[in-house]
Amino acid sequence: MSNTSYVKTITSMITSYSPSSSVLVNSNLPSRFYFRGLTVTMGIGVSPVNPSYLVLQDGSGQGGQDGFSRITGGSVLLDATGSRLLMPEDSYVLIKNGLYFWANTGIVSSTPLQMTVFYT
Amino acid sequence: MRDKLKRLHAKNFFKQWAPTDFNAGNSFSQEEFFTAVPSGTRCVLESFSINSVYSGSSISNSSGINNNRDSTISFRTGSSTGPLIFEVKPQFSSYGIVLFGKNFQSPLFDIPCGGTLFADGLFVGLTARTSTSSGPSEPDADYGFNVNIFYSGGS
To answer: Looking at the DSSP assignment, which residues form a beta bridge with residue A63?
Structure first.
């Protein structure tokens, strides 16, 4: 019998973001859930601010760029490809205070950032 | 059905050094140590991803970074100078690590057979070296590493 259950997904399209602030990934996510993975597509920051990075936080009160995981990129977070932060199979990280992200560059509508969270 | 999901912990370690941090006094090397799990505690490292980060617009040997130098990410137990469990060498290509883009984050690497045991804490060391230890060798821009880990136990 399979021990793998299907996961839920929720997708956010971030079209506006001020750098160095903690923002909820999606207000429809519960504050407490099992984080199973994340995909990030498109880029943040077309100007040459390097490296661009995206930090995932459990709660907004961690301050600055501290978080439990980070995706780094080059002149843009992703160079015309996709990124993924998937968990090892059949595992999870418990998020207790809402899933927030933090980035070092702003995000504008012409180069939005799309994130899909996999969770149970 | 019995729930066989395994709860893991995630941590991130990130460090960039400024070009002026690399000087003849430290042989153009910089090190930073992080404690993921304190000594006296067991944990199992299950997965990790790494990459080199560089703030310049391009990377070459003339950037002051050279893959031939021994920059490493080390995973130790006991202490930051304790027994070496394993080591990873982050590498730049002309476009950055693994040719996916200048500094693209590596995919997660899942350690086989359920992970690697760290019997006495888990310590992550970042060692950044520039292209030579014998002459002026500052990188052209900020330079360092990003490490994500997933582990079980340790709390």
So the answer is: none
Residue of B nearest to A80 (CA): B101
**Chain A residues lying within 8 Å of B3, measured CB to CB:** 3
The verdict on residue B84 lying in a domain is yes
Q: Could you tell me the pTM of the whole model?
A: 0.85
Range of the domain at B126: 9-153
CB-based burial, B55-93: b 16+ in 10 Å, e otherwise: bbeebeeebbbbbebebbbbbbbbebeeeebeeeebebe
Tell me which chain B residues have a C-beta less than 8 angstroms from the C-beta of A88. Answer: 6, 8, 46-47, 108, 110, 150
B51 and B145 Cβ atoms separated by less than 8 Å? yes
Q: For B98-111, write each residue's pLDDT tens digit.
A: 333 345 566 678 88
What is the helix (H) or strand (E) element at residue A71, kind and residue range? strand A69-72
Residue B133 is assigned to a structural domain of this protein: yes
Q: Does the beta-carbon distance from A74 to B96 stay under 8 Å? A: yes
The ipTM (two decimal places) reads 0.80
